Amino acid sequence: MSRRRRSHGQALVEFAIVLPIIVAVVLGLFDLGRAVYSYNTLAQASRQAARVAIVNQVTADVKSQAVDSAVTLGLATSNVDVCFKTADSSSTDCSSSSGNCPQSTRYIGCLAVVRTHLSYTPMTPVIALIVSSINLSSTSIEPIEYVCPEGTASTC
Known about the structure:
The protein is an alpha+beta fold. The chain has four helices and three strands.
């Protein structure tokens, strides 16, 4: 009978030890879901902006489309890079000027490169201590289908 008396609080102690671990896992899953949602939204914004860029090469319009496609993320125009590369360019981002396709020599087949990027911060304070922020980015590359005439970009 004495053995039974000593084990009355055992389940409560075990639960108190395991509960913080369970809560951390559940909150981590919520933050993981938010991160996946953020990345998918960022990728969709990049694709939508590239679709605009293949027929309208006005950089402001392309950036505006990306921002409008990711309203829930608070994406700003400074988080969107737009450039145009020649079809044989091996560069897949806007960081280098090699293989650029300027407006004056742009032709059908040049590549419209749109890169969206954002820093994701976890919502849960416990998870934020482990992972402070994650840099998310998505790049979409599409060939130009219509070249805007220079000076009349508003009609594209």
